Amino acid sequence: MTRFAPILGWLQRRAENFIALMLAAMFLTFLLQILFRYILALPVTYTNWTVEFVSIAWLWGILFGYAFVVRDSDIIRLDIVYNGLPLGARRVLDAVTGLICAAILANTLPKCWDYVQFMRIERTPAMRIHYNYVFAIYIAFAVAVIVRSLLNVWGAIRGTGSRYVTPIHPEGHDYD
Questions:
Q1: Taking the alpha carbons of 85, 87, 91, 92 in that order, is the dihedral positive or negative?
Q2: 13-61: per-residue pLDDT in tens?
Q3: How far apart are CA 4 and CA 140, in angstroms?
Q4: 106: part of which helix (H) or strand (E)?
Q5: Could you read off the pLDDT of 89-135 as tens digits, one per residue?
Q6: Taking Cα atoms as reference points, which of 108, 96, 173 lies closest to residue 138?
Q7: Exposure b/e, 103-115, CB count within 10 A at least 16 = b
Q8: Are the C-beta atoms of residues 26 and 58 closer than 8 Å to each other?
Q9: pLDDT at position 57, please?
Q10: Contacts 24+ apart (CB under 8 A), 21-27
Q11: Cα 1 versus chain centre, distance
């Protein structure tokens, strides 16, 4: 796996660049929309594509970002009860929740694929983009979450990962 680290690192940085470009494009489109509506006083029909673009970019940004940019350590968890459990119980809980999440998404994946394929007959109102391109990111998102969940299950079974390492001073704080 270490020989693929440079390639995976490069792909990770390109995914981060893609999200940054998407956020910049959304922001500039939002500013353009303000210009058209409030400064140039043009009718809303001239700016319909901006609302559509921002909506599609937001959808892609959220799903693409979680699938390819967000690391497991970046996810915010409400783990007050979880951290109070013994290590073995946490591992069992991680394995069970990972399997449930992967099973639910894997079960829905064929129907989602059918829906995405069906939506190629429809286009968005303003930009005329086929809806299957708009919704295709969900397939990548679902597959990435399935893989991530199964990797978490494997880590829970093996007891590897930062979640299962007991700190030297469990009562200590990061700022000590």
A1: negative
A2: 999 999 999 999 999 998 988 888 888 888 766 668 888 999 999 999 9
A3: 21
A4: helix 87-118
A5: 999 999 999 999 999 999 999 999 999 999 999 999 989 999 999 99
A6: 108
A7: eebeeeeeeeeee
A8: yes
A9: 95
A10: 22/57, 22/60, 22/61, 22/64, 23/61, 25/53, 25/57, 26/53, 26/54, 26/57, 26/58, 26/61
A11: 23
Q: What are phi and psi of 167, to 5 degrees?
A: -65, 155
Could you tell me the sign of the dihedral formed by the alpha carbons of 33, 25, 137, 162, in that order? negative
How long a stretch of residues is the chain? Answer: 176
What are the CA-CA distances from residue 116 to residues 52, 64, 111, 130, 136 (Å)? Answer: 18, 16, 9, 10, 6
Scanning the structure block, which residue is given the tokens 């390109």? 14
pLDDT at 156 over 60: yes
Report the Cα–Cα distance between both ends of the chain, in Å, rounded. 35
CA 163 to chain centre: 21
Token look-up 């915010």 returns 76
Which residues have a Cβ under 8 Å from the Cβ of 38 and sit 6 or more positions away? none
